[in-house]
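Hmm, what's this shape?
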Amino acid sequence: MDLLHSLCRLPAPSGNEAALARFVLAYIHKQQGTWLVQPEILADERFQDCILLVFGQPRTAVFAHLDSIGFTVRYGRELVPIGGPVLEAGTRLVGEDSQGPIDCLLVVDDETGRPEHDFHREIERGTELTFYCDFRETETTVQSCYLDNRLGVYNALRLCETLTHGAIAFSCWEEHGGGAVAYLARYLHETYGLRQALISDITWVTAGVTAGAGCVISLRDSLIPRRAYVNRIRAIAERSGLAFQLEVEGSGGSDAAELQRAAAPWDWCFVGAPEDYVHSANELVDKRDIASMLALYRVLMQEL
């Protein structure tokens, strides 16, 4: 879990993913010599802070978003949420402005419900604050802020070890409206003819989805993927003998939103581990689901 711990420690709120992108790119350059296939690495101004890896003759793309939720300092003590963080008073927040490091607590106004900070001085407006990383590992679980979606990134990087044909897209802005997947998808479609994708992201533990029972194949969330494609994925998963669960939700979303609205015939399916305490500083995932997720991705990328 050392790689996952390193990923969770690095702040990367939507719109400011550069530090995490540099870390991921450095990891790729260091590790690619041990992978079965050396990928084409695309990471330049055309893609802003996103990274594309292309292995062999790709048929399927995996999308994993780098960014996370957080807060932007407004005026005085006011905070503006980035994405949808849980507003739990007393949560430890960290950041840095030109005056130095920031370590403070989240305060929720009793009357308005608006988030604020309790730092001893005024923080420069526009400064981003993120959850303090308290990474906890047991024999069976991992708990930390930002497992959504550092675990999806971790899964994609581990997938690279054995991937022979496929594309990996590390995207930005997913937690706050998207924007990057549109141009990544266009490039992959126009350059390599890709039309099918897997979304390497994290979903929820719910009444119908249990921690420890395997990776989740989502039949729908706020969007509905094409059933023929999802059925192919289900059939591959069933033949594999790996543990997996089926999810049906009416809300929530992912990088898939931009694929579904793209001016190209993209098929997509969300495949990811479930977590508890979503969008809080204490997201919790069962290690069996992490292992199931990686194993299922390895099978799917071979057979799709």
User: Anything to note?
Assistant: The two ends are 28 Å apart (CA to CA). The chain has two domains: 2-68+136-303, 70-131.
